[in-house]
Amino acid sequence: MALTIFREKKFFLLLITGLILLFFGLPWGLRFILPANMIRTRVERELGKELQAKTIIEEVRFGLLPAPSIRLIGLHLLDRKTNMEWLRSDSLEARLKLLPLLRGKVVPGKLLLKHPRFRLERGKNGSRHFPGSPFSAFRRNASPRLSLPSHLPIDSLILEKASLEIPDRLHPGSPSPVKLRDMDISLRGLSGNTPIFFKIRGEFPHGRFESRPFSAEGQVDRTSGKIDLHRPVLAVAFSARGIPPAMIRPYLKEKLQLDLLSGTVNLKGHLARNREGVLTLSGDISLKRFRLHLPAYASHPVTGEKASLSFMLQRDRGLIAARSLEMTVDGLTFWGHGTYRTEAADFPGFSLFLHAAGLPPARLKQYAPDKILPKEFTRSFLPGKTTGTLDIPLLEITRNTKEKTAKPEPENTRVRLKIAFHDFGAFPGEGLLPLEKVNGNLTWAGGSLRFDHLRGLYGRSLFRNLTGTLAFTNPSDTDLRINGRLNLEEAAQLLLRLPEENRGKLFPAQIPKMEGYANLNIRLQRTDHSPPPLKLTGTVNLIHAGFNLPAAPVFLSGLEGPITFASGRITPFQLKAEINTLPVTLTGKIDRLFEKGPILNLRVDSRPTAEELIRFLPFLKDRFTFTEGVPDLTLKIEGPPEDLQFQGRFDLTRPAVMIPNRLQKKEGTPLLLDFSGSHGREKESVLKTARLTLGNETLVFSGTITDPPDPRLTFAVKVPSLSLKPLAGMIPALAPQTTDGSLHGKLEGSYRFGRPGSSQLNGQIMLRDVTLRLPHTPDPLRGLSGTLLFSGQRVTAKGFHCRWDGIPITFDMNLPHRKAPRPEFHIHVPSVNLLQRIKTLGQNRPEESKKPEDSFRKLDFRATIHFNHVRAGLLKLEDFRAKLHLKEGHLSIPVFTARGLDGSVKGKGMIDFTNGKEPEFRGKVNIQGVSAEKYLQLLPHNRAFYTGEISGSIGVTGKIYPNLEKTAREMTGTAHLKIKATKERNVLFQITRDIIQRMEIMLGRKNEKFLIVEHDGMRGDFTLSDGKFHSSNFSIRGYHKFDVSGLTLDRLTAAIPIRIKYDIRATGSFDFLNHGIDCYIAAEPFSIATKLVRKVPLAGRVLTGKNKSLYTAYFRFFGSLNYKDRGTRKGAKLKKLDFRDLSKKVRKALTPPG
Known about the structure:
Layout: H1 2-33, H2 36-51, E1 53-63, E2 69-79, E3 85-96, H3 98-102, E4 108-114, E5 117-119, H4 136-141, E6 147-148, E7 156-166, E8 178-188, E9 196-206, E10 210-221, E11 227-228, E12 233-243, H5 245-256, E13 260-273, E14 279-293, E15 302-316, E16 319-329, E17 332-341, E18 350-359, H6 361-367, H7 375-381, E19 385-399, E20 413-427, E21 435-445, E22 448-458, E23 461-471, E24 479-487, H8 488-496, H9 500-503, E25 514-526, E26 534-548, E27 555-566, E28 569-579, E29 582-591, E30 599-606, H10 610-616, E31 625-627, E32 632-639, E33 644-651, E34 656-659, E35 663-665, E36 671-679, E37 685-694, E38 697-706, E39 712-723, E40 742-752, E41 760-772, E42 781-792, E43 794-804, E44 807-815, E45 824-833, H11 834-840, E46 860-872, E47 875-887, E48 890-900, E49 903-912, E50 920-931, H12 932-936, E51 949-959, H13 964-969, E52 972-980, H14 987-997, E53 1010-1025, E54 1028-1042, E55 1047-1049, E56 1052-1054, E57 1058-1071, E58 1076-1084, H15 1087-1094, H16 1099-1104, E59 1113-1120, E60 1133-1137, H17 1144-1150
Parallel strand pairs: 4-7, 5-7, 45-46
Antiparallel strand pairs: 1-2, 2-3, 3-4, 3-5, 6-11, 7-8, 8-9, 9-10, 10-12, 12-13, 13-14, 14-15, 15-16, 16-17, 17-18, 18-19, 19-20, 20-21, 21-22, 22-23, 23-24, 24-25, 25-26, 26-27, 27-28, 28-29, 29-30, 30-32, 31-34, 32-33, 33-36, 34-35, 36-37, 37-38, 38-39, 39-40, 40-41, 41-42, 42-43, 43-44, ...
């Protein structure tokens, strides 16, 4: 028993001793069998050679537990060219199989890579994934079918806590977008004939502090006992949640030109490759709160809350086929399929087929790839505001592969899109018309729009059925049938959006303005080569339509009737229309309609009433009337728009025509205008000839008008000896007595529109023996002859002469121009009877001229007048000169001068012709040195009432009546006159002597005692009214000499003849119409003595009394001063009065001041 126990103890002791020796001796033995330096050197060399990388191993260690192993501590793999490290691992452990090891063989059973950190760097062409590809040696040295042997020396490969970093090749130096960490990767079954199973578990960062897991597991099958590394047969299941967009953005940015991707991405799928090399990828991708932008395809990002994509992709020989695609974005579902080509192209090609149903149009703009869709489509069908729904039976986007292309090119992309509209509406704004209630199908493919029974509203236009093709790339494919109602105004706006080169080829696009509607039943086709470029057939029925004729300043409106299109032309038609409100009948045809130069053949006929003609030409209102017939208007237009030829006639022969104060034409008298000319779109309008016929006389003129931007009118008028006698009965300004009056001459001129003052006129018109009526007088101007000279903007009348009521008149005249906007006359008349002319002023005046809007209001001129002799009754003036200015009915006379009655007259005045029927006047006259005797001789009694010189001023106001006496009686004014005395014996001298002799101091004295009376003169202030001169301060001052010896006056006695100063004051009035006088006179013989006495205090007031005079005699002088009334009861009488007999007013006027 004891022996047994001992033996067992010995066995265990030997076993323990052997294990101890094996544990400590095996590493020593391994070091002996495999020296560390040799292992490190050989591994660095062989591994670097196979991986085309620089290999560094820091240390080699041997281990026993849990199995014998060789550890390569600090493994580094670097790119040989750039020295960039793409793998760093803490250790690479090869666990050796024990039995082969005991037999002296080193056979690894498992490889364990701890904490490897990979850094992948893709090549510029995207094919290389490491700085030095680990498979580059195999690809360079091995056969094209790269494979691993069926029996590998290792059973499994395990990577613990691995990490992977893929930098952004397009943005070097920026943080790496792809970072995977804490990955555990295991590959098992490497050494048998069974499939190789692998499993990957790991994390990727999500945000700054979070991580999200991902996993993948699957198997790689063996083919003929080998593992094909080029196209392995495999099956992989993978999943990841919360993938940051930054991880996949760089790859998508290169392949799809991705510019923006945000949100959260979840991925779950399956990857498999069969033995034929077909790679199948299927799965589901979901996005939350995403934002995606591919600028190469769309100008706007796609945003949403949720999106999911179910897919199944197959790849075989560079072709990826999407067998099934189903995408849901915020509740909208799209499905389809496609292909993607990747072979050797910088920019891969692809084909994508998508479908959708119940799509709100507003979402179409959000998801549509507008960069590769035609602009016509995106502008018309991607508006801001929409209604209805859309189905997309098909959206096909195909792009061919193009070598060396950095970005996609639209010409390499082909789009085929079919849309089904269901009560679709679009309101784009920006001048584009809205679409409403659209139903039908629309297909875009190959640069063409295909309409399939499309109907709806476009603005105010209605399309009942729109079917056919509108081709843009190959115009000859255009074949469109249209049935509907077109709004012409909106059609004109649509045509203006065409490119300039296209508008020039289409005649309708050359029409600047259209209005109204047209019912369409037409077919539009595009021809291949020869003109016209468009072929239009069918009928257009116009309804209240209107448009401008190209290159013509008229607007056709109210067009009613059908127009038929056939073979590129409009067949003969007849339409009712209006030209600028003038009713017309329009007939004609248009050839070569859709060519650059259509041929017009139009005729316009009109027979308007007076109301219609005035509505057409508003300036004729109140100026033009006609009765007993209607005019005829005919206009013919022929030729292409760039060279239109026109001719016409405006015939007013049948009606009776009246232009007040200008023309009175009887029914049947010829009055017509014939004209012809041409107009071109790029040339000037030419009026070749125009003839205005009135009666048997003709006026010929011609002209041109240049088109914008600098429109200008040039014209020429030829007057070939126009006889005025036949026109005397039609033109009121020509007096019926006109005999052989005529005018002839020629004018040329120009005018630039929009530039006031730019008119120019040159030439001359000569008048001979013309008789003209003048307003407000029955006497015409007879024998008017002279020449009108036109030079630039100045018109002058030279050498004109005529006779007015037998008075010869000569004058020159400057007519208005820009710098002198009113005419100026210089008139010379040898002699005129002024009273007779004033009396006839206003006679035979037309009724309308008696209104406030009298023709005088419309006159504006300046004049200078010179009369050699002017007679006003018995008054005769010489060298009368005056300046006149008539404006707005006011005739101002700034100055006039004259000589007469041995003196001179200077004054100014004004006559207002606008206030009622009778002109108002006012004036002021200064008189100097006029002979009182000659002036008083103008009075009817024609006697020497007084002699001397009259000076002073007179101002008057009043109205001019046909009756001169009424004019004088209602005239008012003021005057201040001074008459210098003489010693001549006259009537006033006799009156003064009578007054002195009747004084009390002279009673009983004999006449011979009255020696002589001397006068200093007379003066006074007067007012004028009721045909009388009124004065309250008229005075006569002088001296009288008489013998007063023995005369006692208030105890004063004089014994010798004395010379005493006297004053005579008067107040009253003088009726210059009836030559009557009524005045009160105060005669004061001792005026100087009275003034001296009045200066004595107290005594002066006592001695002078109430009348403030030592002695004053009072008289009343009244009656007629006519010579024939002298000695009769009507004759003037002198009556002696007492101071007490005078009224207070008369006393105040006759009492001296002070």
